[in-house]
Each structure stands twice: as structure tokens, then as C-alpha cells.
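Lab notes, practical 5.
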Amino acid sequence: MIEAPHFSAAGAKKKNVRLPETLFDGTVNEDVMHRAVVTFLSNQRQGTHATKTRRFVTGGNQKPWRQKGTGRARQGSTRAPHWRHGGIVFGPQPRSYRLGIPKKVRQLAKKSALNARARESALFVVDALVYEKPRTKVLAELLDKLGVADRKVLLLTAGDTHAANVYLSGRNLPRVQVMRFADATAYEILWADAVLVELAALGQESPTTEAPDA
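Output from the prediction step:
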């Protein structure tokens, strides 16, 4: 059974919480995580790069000199690829970099990333963050109490009605990314140095009484 540090919404230390075995069974498949990251980054590419071949370069309509009698090699156009300012040969053209990945492989990659962060003691569980309005200062204080204020932090919410205010609270923090637990991919989890997960996102309820660790 894997455990993770548990904190209140105000940053108070609580008793460690046991992580659900369905997600945290110690599996860390590096090959699958690599494939998921490559697929994610490839799918971010727009593929709008384009170079001009000789047919699209302006000019070069006439021969630069006559065919014979000059002592120079025959040339048909100054926009040929071997001329300066000529067309590009085999240059990049618009294309799609889209890659596919099976659903089960994607799920295994996310599971492996979560287990990797838990193994490194970089995964923290916090109680539900209920903000009636955006509170960047309060969220920054929480990160400072957890000792992760100077690290890249991924905050995974349960996706309830208060998730929008949590997102707005973390939007102004340059090293903080807030998203729903269900929307997180292996890339975001591996990008972060520390992962904060709301207890409800793991399908657990906050205990009514817990004694803090000595």
C-alpha cells in the first residue's frame, strides 16, 4: 500500500493517506510514458511550416545569359535551387504531425507517471480547496507551507463547482498549473516537480477526525 502526505486546505499536516490501489500499485513503465510524452508533444505541433520551391519564387523568368558563346555554364533561371535566393529543394511543407495512442496505453502512462511521483515523495494529497472567489495569495501560502513554492506544481482538482476559482487562483502563479484530475495526462504529471491532488479526486472522503503526525 502506497501512502502520501496529507494536508488540510490551510496547509496543516495530517496523517498520511493511503492511495487507492487501482491507480497506485507501484507500476512505472518508462517506455509507455516516453510514448505518451512523444505523442503529446507531436500533437501540439501545428505543421504550418512551408518553404518556396522554384515555382513559387518571384523572378527568374528569363535566362540570365544566352545559351552559348559566353564561356559559362548554361543557366535557365536565377531561381534554380543552386542560385542564391533560388527555390528550396525538399524543404518542409504543411503536414500533420498527429499521432495516435491506444486508450489503455494512455491510461497506463498516466498511472505510471502518478506512481513515479509517489515513489519520489513528490505527490501530496490536500483536502478540498473551496474558494468562493479567486484567492491567489491563499493558494501561494498553501504551496509555501508545503515547501513547493519554488518548484513546478501541478494541482489536480476533483472538478466540482469551486474548481473554476481554484484555476483562477493559480493562473497568476508562473510555476503552477491547475486542471481537473480526469483531464491530466502523463505529460503534465511528468512536467511537474510536485503534484497536489485533492482528496475527493482520488475517490476518498476526508476523515472527520485525524491525529497529526508527531
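Observations recorded by the TA: The longest helix spans residues 103-119. The beta strands are 3-7, 13-18, 123-126, 153-157, 176-180, 194-198.
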